[in-house]
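Incident log, structure service

09:12 report received: a user says their structure output differs between two submissions of the same chain.
09:20 pulled the input from the user's history:
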Amino acid sequence: MTQARDRRAGLTVGDLVAMPHLGLSLVAGASGLGRPVRWAHVCELEDPAPWLEGWELVMTTGMGVPAEPERQRAYIERMAAAQIAGLAISQDLLAPPITDLLREAADRTGFPVLEVSIEVPFVALSRTIAAANADGAQRRLVTHLGIFDTLRAATAQGVGFAELLRRMEDLAGYRLHPCSSTGHPLIAGIDPPPDGIVERHLPRRPGQPPGIPGGYIVTIPLAGRAAGLLIALERDDADPAGLTAVQHIATVVALELANREREREVVRREGAETLAELLAGSLDAGAARKRLALAGIDPDQPLVLAAVLPDEGVDDSAVHRALADRGVAHLLLWQRELYVLVPSALDAALADLDGCSVGISRAFGIDEGLGGARREALWALGRARDRAERLARFPDRAQETTWLPTDAASLETLARRTLGPVLEADRLRGSELVRSLRVWLEHDRRTEAAAARLMIHKHTLAYRLKRVERLTGRDLARTADLAELWLALQALDVVGAQTEPSARARRPAQRRTTRPSSDGEG
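09:34 re-ran on a clean worker, output below:
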């Protein structure tokens, strides 16, 4: 036991054994008679540890005591490691014979195992322990009330949340770490939990008990969902106030998160209005710069625009929270697609959005406007969807961009002049000639790799490419024809982004079986 636990010990297992009217006799673990007893609890589970706070005397009729020697040893070791005070087994009821391995484990760990006379009801033990710890229970009640008194005082004083949490650590006797289900800090300025905790105890399973060795992990509730977890680790220099105190603190954290959610919603709405005006081109350069500065974005630094397609069940609020939790200043607007404007130096955060497909434009200055960036972002999103990838960026490579005309009419002409017959064949027959050509070129004309990506036979792909040659009058063995077809595909992608962004971005990658169709394709 640490010095802090000696100070709070009060009633011990040895004290209970010394009370004749309780009918207790020591079976094993004599070196642990000094262990404190703070409560008594009846439990018939083979592993009671996750359901207890620590320093309880576990009472059992024997139903939970395993019969096999190895399992008896593990039974004792689990409770000893969980800082349970001791085990009291009712005499002559349902317990199997006590084995030498159980006694050895109890003696080795200093975990007292007691036998309770059949004439003594468990309630007698419980009342004795509760009465002896009445002062401790009163101290805990004072601590619980003190948590909310501390909250009121900090609010009146304008104290920041980091300082409020530090005061609650002193009051409750825990190191406190609000975090996400993956162990990331939930609130800026609050330290994440130690790495060992994350590796061993996260993520949490639904319904998992809160207890962990030396502390608790409890859910932080917010608006009917779990906003995160509060990890509370006992401090050796304090008297921990128990699970109820940690749950009260989790409520305080939830209040702080709710306040931040409201502030974020105001910021999100204001940002959406600004981004809508920027996309429409209705803000002049001066006004745009002022709006960005108010949103916390430096108007002089390069920006990127992302087009985001969330999976089912993921909404714009989840994207907004994810970026805000990372401290990324941004503007966000749902407009057929979800658009997000961020500083280019922070665009790595867009790659970490869970449950989203993302297309990112090239970096640009706010004085250039967002028209070109929007087309690039939609083009990149379409590319990500075609490749069944989560993220694509508009390429900076000159051969893919600078050789293309910039106006929609010229792009349309280029795409139709070269690929018009192929597009018409796809439209009339439901074939995938254009997509097959694109995937083949993206795989550097490696037919087997492209066929695998398309999930068709290589002979089917070869047949489709021959049809492209016949329809376009181009020879795929000639470099000049390949270059023309490649540029036409790039123009087609950009035209699709300009004219039908929603349909193109949301088109799922199609999967086809290898049965012959009417045009001979697989």
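09:41 both user submissions now match this output. Likely a transient worker issue. Closing.
09:42 reviewer note: The CA atoms of residues 411 and 491 lie 5 Å apart. The two ends are 73 Å apart (CA to CA).
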